[in-house]
Amino acid sequence: MTLSIWRYSHLTLALVSSLFLLVASITGVILAVEPISNKIQPYRIADADELTLAETLTNLNAKYDEVLSISRDRNGFISVSVIIEGESKQFYVNPFSGEALGPLIEKAPIFQFSTNLHRSLFLKSTGRLLIGLVSFLLFLIAVSGIVLIAKRQGGIRYFFAPVVRENFSQFNHVVYSRLTLLPILVLSLTGVYLSLLRFNLIPEENIVHEVDYDSLNETPIIPIQEFELLQNIKLGQLRELEYPFSEFVEDYYTIRLKNREILLNQFTGEVITEKKEPLVTTISSWSTVLHTGEGSIIWSAVLGLGSLSIPYLMVTGFVIYFKRPKIRIKNKFLKNECDHIILVGTEGGTTLLYAQEFHKQLLKSGEKCYLGMMNEYTVFPQMNQLTLIAATYGQGEAPATASKFMQLIKEHLQKQPFSFSVVGFGSTSYPNFCQFAYEAFDTLKKYSNATALGEVFTVNNQSFEAFSNWANAWAKSQGTALRLEKPKISLPKTHISNFVVADRVDFSKEDTFLLTLKNKNGARAVSGDLLSIIPEEDGRERLYSIGNLGKNTLAVSVKKHPKGVCSNLMGQLEKGETLSAGVVNNRHFHLPKSNKEAVLIATGTGIGPFLGMIASNSPKRNLHLYWGGRTSESFGLYQPHIDEALSKNKLYRFIPAYSRVDDKKVYVQHLIKKDGGKIAKILNNGGCVMICGSIAMQREVMTELAKICSTYLKKDLSHFQNRKQIKMDCY
Ligand SMILES: Cc1cc2nc3c(=O)[nH]c(=O)nc-3n(C[C@H](O)[C@H](O)[C@H](O)COP(=O)(O)O)c2cc1C
């Protein structure tokens, strides 16, 4: 079944059952309190379960004139039904002394009300039927949820792998549904079972004893404390013991144990008959315990949390659905008449929004172009240009609208030559960054009539800046110009703040500079977060990684681009001037809070966030910094920070790689390879590796890290990526 069918089934089931599910789950939470409040009552006597039935009966017989029955409930409380002064009384007792402990627990009105609402919505049989149906729907919702999580995680074996936080609802929906999956499955299945039982769709068997009354002996009369069977059964095994009604031999003791029922001769203590409990009764009893949590504080709490999670999952689920961009495409031209075909691989819809903007601007500039999904790949008779804009899902797999693309390329061969470009949408928080885009690119490249226009262009975390850079470069290569407008998507909110330039250091030879910014009105930034700047000149957002140096100061290192609007604007800022910017939370690139060792790898201005991480590090944690630049002069910008950190033991090792010092160019990946053993040890001990800088450097470093993991640790790099031990923020 395709992903969208699972998704729609999950949503439709939740919508259809939402009201009833809400009632059942809220009353379920209330009812989970009942077994807990019962269990904490002071009626459980230590070691009572170890007492034999013979001892119990002797103790109670000594205390009361007439005992009718003894019961043990799921809380382990012993109660008796006795006649005192001609009146029948029931209460909890101490089986050692026979002392009365208190009256039987009565159901509080709130629990009574909730039970009725929970079981039948006060609608008698109709209500019971509805609730049974809702339990079944809940089970189907849970199953479709399991499939959806397995698909999004890239396979069932990654089901419990860490979830990348894309947004609040998506992250929490997945995390809490996994956490509460077991109680939800148990509640739904046992709910269905108990409903079937109530409607007699599961036949309940009663134990029927066949007693041969003629063979019952009245002698020898043995005192009850000497009955062999009663001496061998512990009170912990008892459910109920009924005394004989009269002193006729035809009346006997009825003993209901956890797994069998026994009739016992009241004079001789002989077993009259013994029957095992039918399987249906055992299953029913387990279903009740599992559904209600009776007798166990822990399980009741687990069930309560499971029920509580249902409304929460409903809300977050609906938010995910309604926030998802809707996939609707309008085309002005037929695909057969277009010379430029744009195909999109998307799952969440954001890639399509970017592609739509690209398509719109191309149409404005007079191009005859067609926008479709990658799964629509076919023979395009007029196509001379193909643009693929593809996200990556699961563990580096195709998104929903491109799942058949690889097969379709083979089936539909284009007759004419054409050129193609591939833009990959992905996130460096995932192990296989933009892998599907790379695979699509490699597959297309194999066809002799397909010419690649450059390499795959990657867009990290839906960066509009990156996408419009690509669009501008592409347009330039075609001899035209494009101006894309940012689609309205809800990316993490930025809080605009004023920053005053506290210091600036320049290295003009390489057009790089380091700004120290003092935050004037309180945007809280963690090293690794991003500074968001939107220059008035073009209204487009640029993001820069920042380091928090403490005392409200941030470090941001920038390289000026010859025609870069924002980098030049920042390059002109003088000490004391103010910059308006936002701080974007970039949680996946924060240094973990634990004190585990970490390896920081950067090239050029990528060192920015690490300056902050190092400044706030304690000497207890060893940080190793690998930095790549052209010469030691290039390092001058950062040297004071690094020297100070080394002297204060905030940085353990600094390992520079200079590419223009000796004849032999040294890059960071060479040093990583050399220190393979050390890095492997750090990863194996739970430490992490963080990479910041260019995508090109990231790919080289990742190749080395993959080799290190397989050589030294016999593990795949993805093992550590899944555990969030490899963190990247590359551009
Ligand atoms: C469950 C899930 C798995 C993902 N797996 C990857 C991955 O393996 N590699 C990658 O680069 N990006 C991965 N991403 C990030 C998406 O490709 C990225 O967010 C993209 O912009 C989504 O585009 P869409 O909204 O058009 O589907 C994943 C996202 C999600 C939600």
TrEMBL record:
Domain Flavodoxin-like: 340-475
A GO CC annotation given for this chain: cytosol
Protein name per its UniProtKB record: NADPH--hemoprotein reductase
An example molecular function term from Gene Ontology annotations: FMN binding
EC number(s) on file: 1.6.2.4
Keyword Transmembrane helix in annotation: yes
Pfam families: Flavodoxin_1, NAD_binding_1, PepSY_TM
Domain FAD-binding FR-type: 494-592
Keywords (A to Z) from UniProt: Flavoprotein, Membrane, Transmembrane, Transmembrane helix
SUPFAM superfamilies in the cross-refs: Ferredoxin reductase-like, C-terminal NADP-linked domain, Flavoproteins, Riboflavin synthase domain-like
Keyword Secreted carried by entry: no
Coiled coil: none
Transmembrane regions listed in the UniProt entry: 129-150, 175-196, 297-322
InterPro entries, sorted: FAD-bd_FR_type, Flavodoxin/NO_synth, Flavoprot_Pyr_Nucl_cyt_Rdtase, Flavoprotein-like_sf, FNR_nucleotide-bd, OxRdtase_FAD/NAD-bd, PepSY-ass_TM, Riboflavin_synthase-like_b-brl
Organism: Flagellimonas chongwuensis
